[in-house]
Design a protein that fits this description.
The complex is a heterodimer of chains A (about 475) and B (about 250). By secondary structure, chain A is of the alpha/beta class. Chain A contains 17 helices and 16 strands. Chain A has a 6-stranded antiparallel sheet with strand order 1-2-3-4-6-5, covered by helices on one side. Chain B is globular and about 50 Å long. With about 250 residues, chain B is of the alpha/beta class. Classes of the chains: A alpha/beta (about 475), B alpha/beta (about 250).
Chain lengths: ~475, ~250
């Protein structure tokens, strides 16, 4: 389609500046025509370069984006405003986002010759992982995550763009065909995408791994292959460990990056929410040999995997939400004062039950302490000392949990409002199930003041299990 | 304008009433019945009465294989599953009802929509749209009938599947999620089997139908819970084979 001039109108929108001229589309700022007030946010119009007349297949990505953007909600995607008739004037009007693409950090590093700090990389990673998880919870897999499609707002949160290659579990996949072709951008494409798999949320986790790798080292883990053979390399090959490019990179970050980049999806983080928890708590990441190594994977290992990869082929994926529901984040609120052994015991029993049959579940043990417990001036009450003490308490409590393969992390939160602190943690970390004591001793007052469990249960974004004391302890204390 | 598409009702008045009520609640103003109103179930006369009344009010009805055979049942008792209840059904229907059924067309075309119980390529042979290939055959035949056809809706297979043109040559099959509106833009061609109102066979007891929103170009496959216990009881009370009652309880 020809470039539009400022002042022209299209389907009730007045064109302002052209803010982006890409290979696939032009993006203009627009306003409603006839002086109508904007919808509460600035608007952008995306117009594909191809039109329906150029052949339907050229425009199918735009059709996919129209459908999926309309189906998405939440703070991590631009808000949808309007879509044009594909056969007449294809366009998409959406929220105009003021934010920096991830490209910005890569460009800056190139200019200054200074890589972003591990803390910055982790922060960016957490934001991207959270945005990605929000997509997966809506049954969408992005399938084309790359630095140009990820925006970071000033408040640090991330927003994802460009759903032209995306997959929605509830919609027919217009991009699919019988001979399952690789669909995605070669640099960031996951191995299973190479053999045509669509709809696996872990493909997006792989792409995040590629972005983190580049942020950390300035290199691309698998280069930018242009042939099928080059693309297939990642089916069996581990990239060179990031620490070989950048020896001062902390092992925990390498551990995370290489886990995202595992050739087999089952070896990666099972959900983006799990990845976000790890990147938010670097000190709790279990560093294995993978994190410290600076030598690449041996020829023998690669050769074995190469043989295995020869048999890798297309498999249909279950719904994205079904996949991530298999790997919930279970949070337990462990009280740290005025608490009986019976309560602690019952909480452990309940947590064991909740983790139960889900091998991929992850446990977050949280305790809330009052802000007055720490002091900046009194060394014995310094924040790190107090936190260490409570972390120890949490770890001891968790010794009775059958962890098996479950990953566990421990969190001490300072807050004057325990209920709000627990809720904020659950919201911020995409917790699926929260386990907490029912605190029955507060029930008498409950008509007047909602107890912490009541408030949490009412406002929680997830399932809440309120645990009553049960136990062997009733018998123990029986009077003679 | 929302068009409710109902097929394979199979004399199940409980399921039929539940689906019609659900469709009206979701804003359906038009109804199309895609065949197999009778057979298997215990209330053929009631179901046909309802449909005749709705056709008087502007609904569309086409004929299915069970309707045809119930009007001309085999002379000797048949042990073919689909024919076992035909003679019994014949006796339940009035001459007027049978006349209504046998006069229903095999194919109905309305603008860019074509309705056919089985396949458009040989509607009288009652082939099944059971895979991408048979779907393509039916769709191609429909387009020959009218170049304008964008949507072919059928029943017969008792399953809900949407076939569409992906990036390859052949059609792709899509298993819809109940209740999720699927965009079906009219610049593509689509062929759907909309499932069975009165005898679901995918392991769920809920009745199936579909809702087509023409303006928005959206197709919603729907599942509706209904009193299958009563429908099964009625089959037993009528003295029909126990198997037809049991399968409603299992959705098989």
């Amino acid at each position: 389609m020809k470039l539009l001039e400022p002042g022209e109108t299209l389907d009730g929108f007045v064109i302002e500046d052209c803010v982006h001229s890409g290979g696939m589309a032009h993006i203009y700022k627009v306003k409603y025509a006839n002086g109508l007030a904007d919808p509460g946010f600035p608007m952008a119009m995306k117009i594909p370069r191809m039109t329906a007349g150029d052949g339907a297949e050229n425009i199918v990505g735009f059709e996919v984006e129209q459908e999926i953007l309309q189906a998405l909600t939440g703070p991590h995607v631009p808000r949808f405003v309007a879509a044009g008739d594909l056969t007449r004037v294809p366009y998409l009007v959406m929220e105009y986002i003021v934010a920096k693409p991830l490209d910005h950090w890569l460009g800056q590093a190139k200019e200054t010759g200074e890589r972003p700090s591990p803390e910055t990389i982790a922060k960016l990673g957490v934001a991207v992982a959270k945005a990605t998880h929000s997509l997966h919870r809506q049954n969408v897999v992005h399938q084309d995550m790359k630095p140009a499609n990820v925006l970071i707002r000033d408040d640090g949160s991330a927003l994802l763009l460009d759903f032209g290659l995306s997959y929605h579990g509830h919609l027919p996949d217009l991009l699919a065909e019988e001979l399952r072709k690789a669909i995605g951008s070669p640099v960031w494409m996951a191995p299973e995408q190479v053999v045509g798999v669509r709809g696996d949320p872990r493909s997006d986790i792989f792409a995040i791994g590629v972005m983190l790798y580049e942020l950390a080292t300035g290199e691309l883990p698998f280069g930018a292959p242009s042939t099928t053979g080059g693309l297939r390399q990642r089916l069996w090959m581990d990239p060179p460990p990031p620490r070989r490019h950048r020896p001062d990179l902390p092992p925990w970050l390498q551990e995370v990056i290489l886990r995202c980049l595992a050739p087999e999806a089952a070896q990666r983080y099972p959900s983006a929410a799990h990845l976000a928890v790890d990147l938010s708590n670097p000190d709790q990441i279990k560093v294995t040999a993978r994190g410290t190594q600076t030598e690449g994977t041996s020829f023998r290992v690669h050769f074995k995997r190469w043989i295995k990869a020869a048999g890798m082929s297309y498999q249909p994926s279950p719904l994205p939400t079904e996949q991530i529901d298999q790997v919930p984040i279970v949070m337990v609120a462990v009280p740290n004062r005025d608490v009986t052994d019976a309560t602690l015991y019952s909480l452990r029993v309940a947590v064991n039950r909740s983790l139960g049959t889900r091998p991929g579940a992850r446990l977050a043990c949280v305790t809330v302490i009052s802000s007055s417990e720490t002091s900046a001036s009194d060394a014995s009450k310094s924040e790190s000392r107090v936190h260490t003490r409570y972390l120890e308490m949490l770890k001891q409590w968790a010794q009775g949990i059958e962890m098996g393969s479950h990953q566990t992390s421990f969190h001490v939160i300072e807050s004057g409002d325990p209920a709000e602190a627990l809720l904020a943690y659950a919201r911020g970390n995409h917790v699926n199930v929260m386990v907490l004591g029912a605190a029955t001793h507060g029930l008498k007052l409950q008509p007047f003041i909602p107890t912490i469990p009541i408030k949490v249960a009412m406002e929680a974004p997830c399932t809440v299990i309120l645990v009553k004391q049960e136990l062997p302890f009733a018998q123990l204390g029986a009077p003679d | 304008m929302k068009l409710a598409l109902l097929s394979d009702i199979h004399s199940n008045i409980q399921a039929f009433d539940a689906c019609v009520a659900d469709a009206r609640a979701r804003g359906a103003t038009q109804f199309a019945f895609i065949g197999d109103y009778v057979g298997y179930g215990a209330n053929p006369s009631e179901v046909v009465d309802r449909i005749m009344a709705m056709v008087d009010d502007g609904a569309v009805a086409i004929i299915g294989n069970h309707d045809a055979i119930a009007c001309n049942p085999p002379a000797a008792p048949s042990d073919v599953l689909g024919e076992m209840t035909a003679a019994w059904t014949y006796d339940q229907l009035s001459a007027e009802q049978r006349k209504f059924l046998i006069e229903c067309p095999r194919i109905h075309v309305d603008g860019n929509v074509l309705l056919v119980h089985a396949t458009a390529d040989a509607p009288e042979r009652w082939h099944y749209v059971r895979d991408e290939r048979s779907a393509a055959d039916s769709l191609n035949a429909a387009v020959k009938i009218s170049d304008e056809i964008r949507y072919v809706f059928g029943g017969h297979v008792h399953r809900q599947t949407l076939y569409y043109q992906g990036q390859g040559r052949g059609l792709m099959a899509f298993a819809p999620t109940a209740g999720a509106a699927v965009p079906v833009s009219a610049h593509r061609r689509w062929i759907a089997t909309i499932g069975s109102v009165g005898q679901p066979r995918d392991g769920r007891t809920d009745a199936m139908y579909a809702l087509f929103d023409r303006e928005k170009a959206q197709l919603t496959f729907t599942r509706v819970p209904y009193d299958y216990g009563s429908a099964a009881d009625a089959i037993r009370a009528a003295g029909l084979p126990e198997f037809f009652a049991d399968r409603l309880l299992r959705g098989q």
